[in-house]
Amino acid sequence: VGNNIPVVDLGVHDQTQIIQQIFEASQDFGFFQVINHGVPNHLMDDAMSVFKEFHAMSGKDKTIECSKDPNKSCSVYTGSQNYAKEKFHLWRDGLLHLCNPQEKYIQFWPEKPTRYREVVGPYTTEVRKLGFRILEFISQGLGISPGHFSSGLAENPILLVNHYPPCPDPSLTLGQGKHTDPSIINILLQSEVYGLQVFKDKEWIGVKPIPYAFVVNIGYPLQIICNGKLKGAEHRVVTNSNLARTTASFFINPLDEIIIEPAKTLVDASNPALYRSLLYKDFLIKYVAASGNTRALEEAFSNSTE
Ligand code: AKG
């Protein structure tokens, strides 16, 4: 207990227990892991294999595989999408693509490795279902309407496949700097290599790799929606001097034109809205300006500006 990220077993019959465990973990840590979550093990193995195979290709081949959409719904980069403006360069390559609707975007996903689409198609479908289930538990924990997340707030999932090569001197850089996510939640497939750390009570806590678990975390837009009841957790990724690490984030994101605001049922005279309402696309502009820094986010989105 104490400083470990809670592990929630989604296979138990007692739904009330699941809701309570997810709710408490989301309040205390903004992070939890899920086991017995319904996504088949073989699909997780196959997905991790094609993700590793993709990142084992040359930079040139990776770029070719991610240049099929003129609207850039699929891209690959080194460091972050904002390499030119990074405060320090991140020790990471990222493959990023849109996922929904799958019929629209799959044609722009990599064709190499040859099994990429046939594996990642069903993988993202299953992880998306899991995401809706978790959002349903969170809605019940919050006491908001069951359909709250089905009106565009979860319609634009994005897959980000991270690859962190071994780093000769891990003290000099990071795989990802300290940040809070701009998604509703993230469902992360972590490999067997340590690297992810969560900031809690002024300390970094390592997230233990558990075979066939997913790591789930709350993003800042969900903190706004639940009027501060749950925590958009700060986290980072450290590098490793001798092992490569590959992970896949499935970010459950809103559509651009959807309004992000505290759920109406959570706000009344004695519980004033702590955050302003704004379109998700405007949230993202301010998020990028704040570089994911939590204090800057609080200043940008807090209601108490007077
Ligand atoms: C992210 O993609 O935002 C992450 O935090 C990934 C974490 C990881 O690679 O362990």
What do these coordinates show?
There is one protein chain. With 306 residues, the chain is of the alpha+beta class. It is 30% helix and 21% strand. It contains eight helices and 14 strands. It has an eight-stranded mixed beta sheet. Strands 6-11-8-9 form a four-stranded antiparallel beta sheet, with no helix packed on it. Strand 8 and strand 9 form a beta hairpin. Helix 1 (15-28) crosses helix 5 and helix 2 (41-56) crosses helix 5. The longest helix is centred in the middle third of the chain and has 27 residues, at 116-142. The chain is globular. The chain starts with 6 loop residues before the first strand and ends in a 5-residue tail after the last helix. The mean pLDDT is 93.
